[in-house]
């Protein structure tokens, strides 16, 4: 029996969400927190760290969507949840720990960006997952209807 989560009346596989969240959170911890604290702002290395963060979020969404048997996009969006929680912690530390100014819209924008990138990963995984049928295929498989 599959381990399922009930979200918005939909059954989502827990293993798919956890696998995607591990990829995106691992990338955020390594690239964002560890490497991001070592590089200066507005340098080439800082842009490379940001690129790694973006790719990590896309990869996490793609892994979640690829491992899910149904509701691929919901699985990919849910995989960005731990990164959102990590963003809240980092913003709180920046605000109260070092006293840096934190923009009021910084946190909501980071959350929207994380969900959007994970969704993009889910869309890309869904596109890659589709099997393209050829007219020259001697034994085409019949298309299966999706159950709702």
Task: Describe the protein in words.
The structure is a single chain. This protein is mainly α. Helices cover 66% and strands 5% of the residues. It contains 5 helices and 2 strands, in the order E-E-H-H-H-H-H. The protein has helices at residues 14-38, 44-67, 72-78, 81-97, 106-129; strands spanning 4-7, 10-13. The protein has a two-stranded antiparallel sheet with strand order 1-2. Strand 1 and strand 2 form a beta hairpin. Helix 1 (14-38) packs antiparallel against helix 2, helix 2 packs across helix 5 (106-129) and helix 4 (81-97) packs antiparallel against helix 5 (106-129). The longest helix is centred in the N-terminal third of the chain and has 25 residues, at 14-38. The mean pLDDT is 85.
**Helix-strand pattern:** EEHHHHH
Query: Distance between the terminal alpha carbons, to the nearest Å?
Result: 19 Å
Poorly predicted spans: none
Strand content: 5-15%
Structural class by SSE content: mainly alpha
Q: How many distinct helices?
A: 5
Radius of gyration: 18 Å
Mean of residue pLDDT values = 85
Strand order of the largest sheet: 1-2
Topology readout:
Blueprint: E1 4-7, E2 10-13, H1 14-38, H2 44-67, H3 72-78, H4 81-97, H5 106-129
Antiparallel strand pairs: 1-2
Can I get a quick summary?
66% of the residues lie in helices and 5% in strands. The chain has 148 residues and is mostly helical.
Which descriptors would you attach to this protein?
148 residues; 2 strands; elongated; 66% helix; single chain
